[in-house]
Design goal:
64% helix
Length: 311
């Protein structure tokens, strides 16, 4: 009595060179094949392009810093000299060593106006964004468009009415007038940003806090704010930058007492000429607070700007 044996195969399915279900060899993707090499070259090219774009964007700031380390005669040469001797004389002159005006009052005014206006914006924008994103509000998109439409008015169109109002109430050359103006200017964009951030806050944790007896201020401070901290940090940084860089209102509405840092920079452009090296040194110093704030909040800024990007 004979037994039937199964036909022998050249290998097991799934190994290279073995027949598949249709009798054809199974092909395996080679990680070193042409497609992988093309993908690697593409990734390398995109990386180099990103570096080039980054250098192009950073070049003006680097050139400004280099110019600030040159003397006025070397900074005024055309074409500029890269091998000119370096000096810190411009920075010492900026801080009053050369007998010029002290930059500390304008810097303190800019810090005061930017910090207080940003704080007031966050205090007002957080409950407004909470009402528009978490609480049911009818036609909330119309409300958001109204907030955004207030930014469509050219700033110069409202300059004369604001000037006349400040003159009649006796608030010209007053730093608190700038605080009020910067708060009103940055509030719409802050509400618009924070609404999208607070929309990602889970409603369940808010309802749990309310069940435990938490009132609205407690919910906003101890529940919503920690969850939306990256978005709040991103909004605060943008409002701080907008307030720090504002020039038009500060130039018209201030004189000596409430003069801000951007207005102080315009003093380097005189009828006698442009003091380029001193202006670059002053610009570097004035830019440092914004750079420091961005560097300190960079992780929160990246998280905040990426909130709501992927649903």
């Amino acid at each position: 009595m004979s037994t039937l044996s199964a036909p022998k195969t050249a290998g097991t399915p799934g190994t290279p060179g073995t027949p598949g279900k249709a009798g054809k060899p199974v092909q395996h993707q080679d990680k070193y094949g042409p497609a992988a090499r093309r993908a690697k070259r593409r990734s390398t090219a995109l990386g180099l392009l990103a570096w080039v774009v980054g250098v192009v964007f950073c070049f003006p700031a680097l050139w400004m810093f280099l110019t600030s380390l040159h003397s006025e005669s070397d900074a005024a040469t055309n074409p500029p000299s890269l091998t000119a001797p370096l000096t810190f004389e411009n920075y010492s002159d900026f801080f009053g060593a050369g007998g010029g005006a002290s930059p500390w009052p304008p810097l303190i005014n800019s810090v005061t106006a930017s910090l207080f206006s940003t704080l007031f914006v966050l205090v007002l924008a957080l409950p407004a964004a909470y009402a528009l994103s978490i609480k049911p509000v009818r036609k909330w998109t119309d409300v958001m468009f109204f907030f955004l439409s207030t930014k469509m008015l050219p700033v110069v169109a409202g300059l004369l009415p604001v000037y006349l109002f400040a003159k009649n109430v006796g608030m010209l050359d007053n730093i608190w007038l700038l605080v009020i103006l910067y708060t009103s200017m940055n509030l719409p964009i802050a509400v618009w940003m924070m609404q999208s951030f607070l929309a990602d806050v889970p409603v369940s944790i808010i309802e749990a806090a309310q069940v435990d007896g938490a009132r609205l201020p407690t919910v906003l401070i101890r529940v919503v704010a920690p969850v939306a901290a990256p978005g709040i940090a991103a909004t605060a940084l943008i409002c701080f930058i907008f307030s720090w860089n504002e020039l038009l209102f500060a130039r018209v509405l201030t004189g000596v007492t409430a003069q801000t840092a951007p207005v102080f920079l315009t003093g380097f452009v005189t009828s006698q000429g442009l003091f380029l090296a001193q202006l670059c040194a002053a610009s570097v110093v004035v830019s440092l607070p914004v750079l420091a704030a961005g560097f300190a909040a960079q992780d929160k800024l990246v998280q905040g700007l990426s909130l709501g990007a992927v649903k």
